[in-house]
Amino acid sequence: MILSVDRLNLSFEDKSGRRKILDDVSFSIEEGEIVGIVGLSGAGKTSLLRTLNLLQPVDSGSIMFDGQNIVGLNESKVRSIRKKIGVVFQSYNLFRYRTVYQNIAFPLKIQGIGKGKIRERVMSIVSELGLDHRLSAYPSQLSGGEQQRAAIARALVMDPKLILLDEPTSALDPRTTGRLLDLVVNLNERRSVTFAVVTHDMDVIKRTCDRVAYLQNGKLHFFGPTHEFFVKIENNEVSDFGSPLELETSVLSGQKRLLRVLFWGERTHEPVLWEIAREYDIMINILYGKIEELKNGPFGTMIIAIDGQRQDLFIEKLRDSVFFLEEVG
Amino acid sequence: MFSQIFNATLETLYMLLLSGFLATLFGIPLGVGLYLCSRSRRLKTLYALLDLLVNIFRSIPFIILVLLLIPVTKNVMGTIIGPNAAIFNLTIAAIPFMARLAENSFNAVPSGIIDSSNSMGLNKWQMVTKVLIPETLPDQIGNITVLLINLVTYTAIAGAVGAGGLGQLAINYGYYRFQWDVVLYAVIVLVAISQLLQFTGGKLAKGLRK
To answer: Which residues cross the membrane (chain B) (predicted)?
Structure first.
């Protein structure tokens, strides 16, 4: 475990009194995984990110990082912890009057590392991130995507144990978003960089996250594997991210029974439904279906109408073979 | 007459550049101090005190400040007339001005840049020398330009109380002896100096801005 947050509380004082920003939040990040911190604006995502990096002191709770509680450390200890956590801010925050190279080299330079060694490290990272040709450009001359990659490079150069990404896709067009997500997954797989990603972008969650911490009004409403988060969405337990399809079930079904089936992992691509339907001689009418490619496997949702003699047996058998099944309508 | 104007110009430039240099040398660190104190919970009271002092010194009209400083000037410089005494007065007046300009520029650094510097584990000294100063360099050049142009006016005022330079020339020859052409030439030179400063400062700042 690289980071574990236990019963974190944070509140701000404002005109209307004390406002709770984080309410007893607990979760953890394992080495080598990507955890999504998700929720709507104002849910406390960014505050949580700031507390993880000690930019924001908390009211109570503990943050275990690299084997020690980093809440309430003195300033010089805080500084040494921060060097082990890279942050890529939403607004990138590159130094305005330093070139891309100087920006990326900066964290090493302030540690007094030799010029040759800095050069070696910077060059190995920029070639991986496709920034080689922009080294002498200033941030204002870069595109949004390039600025972000420079910021990621600046975070990577320290070889941090954990990188925090704050809303990484909020300012990117769809194509750049795609490239970024590939990059994150790539860095995660090849360099085994651990990431915590603050986001409300479903694409980010689908394509990068191993686990999801879902915040609502400062409370952690869900923490678990990404596919289980999607089950929550499909079951309408998480409404912030678009509700599942509302079918006019009464019209569609007539007297037939409707089933909602969720698949996950290997079995999604197997003809499970067909095999069992044939076995019990059941007629199936697919009313709705979709498959999402999650990072750790495909996730499918289907709504079917069934007709036949042995419906109960069919449902029982199917329930054992799929991830989730319920009768609707 | 022209040799007089030439000498007076040299005196003015001497006062201007030396007091400008000293005001920058002390004013920017004071600006850093103001900025850091204003952001520290522990040093809130110190900030309030420094802030008040800066405000007081900035609100006293320069000519009055010169009068008030007479005993101090006499003690420190050994005299109260001539360019060197004037440099002392000009510097005292200009330090708080420069400090305030510098502080405002530090405050204008995007908070994200401060956050990301903090997140890299910079200490206070690195924060000042590697982030605050470099990130405000073009603005500080602009500030120094404003300071110097203000000092052009101040040197002329100082001329009225025996500092020498173009101000004194204009008053002694032009005002007291009705040689208005001398006033005119003095003014032309002062305007030219201001223009040159503005032009150079603007070019420098623009070159640094990316």
So the answer is: 12-36, 48-70, 76-97, 147-170, 182-200
Pairwise pLDDT comparison (B31 vs A320), residue with the higher score: B31
Kindly list the residues from chain A whose CB atom is less than 8 angstroms away from the CB atom of residue B131: 95
By the CB < 8 Å criterion, does B110 face chain A?
yes
Inspect the interface and report whether the beta carbons of B134 and A89 lie closer than 8 Å.
no
In this predicted model, what pLDDT tens digit does every residue of A44-102 receive, in sequence order?
Answer: 888 999 999 888 889 999 999 988 899 988 888 899 899 899 999 999 999 999 999 99
Residue A191: which pLDDT band, with cuts at 50, 70 and 90?
A: confident
Range of lowest pLDDT (A233-237, B56-60, B189-193): A233-237
Rounded Cα–Cα distance for residues B25 and B32 (Å): 12
Please list the residues that pair with A163 across neighbouring strands. A86, A195
Q: What is the DSSP string of B85-116?
A: HHHHHHHHHHHHHHHHHHHHHHHTS-HHHHHH
Residues composing chain A: 329
Helix axes B83-107, B62-77, angle to 10 degrees: 120
The HSE-up count of residue A57 (CA atoms within 13 Å, CB side) is 6
Q: What separation in angstroms does the CA of A266 have from each of A196, A226, A298? A: 26, 15, 8
> Closest-CA residue in chain A for B116?
A93
As to burial, measured by CB atoms within 10 angstroms (0-12 exposed, 13-18 middle, 19+ buried), residue A100 is buried
Chain centroid to CA B155: 11
Hey, is the C-beta of B61 within 8 angstroms of any chain A C-beta? no
Strand ranges across the sheet with A194-199: A68-69, A60-65, A3-14, A17-29, A219-225, A211-216, A34-38, A194-199, A162-166, A85-88
* Structure-block tokens of residue B82: 């001539």
Residues in chain B: 210
Distance from C-alpha of B57 to C-alpha of B27, rounded to nearest angstrom: 13
Pairing label, strands A162-166, A85-88 = parallel
Average pLDDT over residues A114-131: 92
| Separation in Å, CA B104 to CA A23, A133, B116 | 37, 36, 20
> What does each C-alpha distance from B93 to A131, B3, B51, B198 come to in angstroms?
49, 30, 15, 21
What phi and psi, each to the nearest 5 degrees, are found at residue A125? Answer: -80, -45
Where do the domains of chain B lie, and which CATH numbers do they carry?
A: 1-208 (1.10.3720.10)
- Picking from B41, B109, B115, B116 by the largest number of A CB atoms within 10 A of its own CB, the best residue to mutate is B116
- Contact predicate B102/B33, CB 8 Å: no
